[in-house]
Amino acid sequence: MNALLVIDAQNTLLQSGDFRKEVSVIRKMVNDFKSSGSPVIVMRHVSEEEHHSFYREEAGSQLPPALQESADYIIEKRTPSAFFQTSLDQLLQTLDIKHVFITGFNIEYCCLFTAVAAFDRGYEVTLIEDATSTVNTDETYEMPGLDIRDFISSILNRSDVIEVVEYEKYLTAQTDR
């Protein structure tokens, strides 16, 4: 069975850039999984520090209502990995999940760490490239011209253990099954 992981699609990140395209693809993925009866698991990054952008009580750390309503499960995390000190692995085992599809933010931290951790735990992993993004830029990393999403997607794809596809290729693969 498959599960969709939506990583950190929280207000503070969504409001820090123009992510309409990525959010649209995430919505399509959520609808695909809901219609097939596969679980949608939403990860929410939280902090207990009051001045942190993910402080659990701040509006920015909250999930958009539509995403919250469509989630079958919401799991809070405190590190980039959705597996570290959370109930995610136990939930996936209980649901007999074999394959996780990853979407969300920030690709170079939480999506990357979660993809590697999922593979390390024996799951088949697919990252939906156009359903991920980051609030960071080439200036953040002092690497002019760096396309962060493309760079991380290339690294994961070249690992030969984590599949990276665009939404259209995901759709084609689903209809071929």
UniProtKB/TrEMBL annotation:
Entry superkingdom: Bacteria
Example GO molecular function: hydrolase activity
Residue stretches making up the Isochorismatase-like domain: 3-139
InterPro entries: Isochorismatase-like_dom, Isochorismatase-like_hydrls, Isochorismatase-like_sf
Gene3D superfamilies for the chain: Isochorismatase-like
Keyword Hydrolase listed: yes
Entry keywords, A to Z: Hydrolase
Family to which this protein belongs: Belongs to the isochorismatase family.
Name used for this protein in its record: Isochorismatase
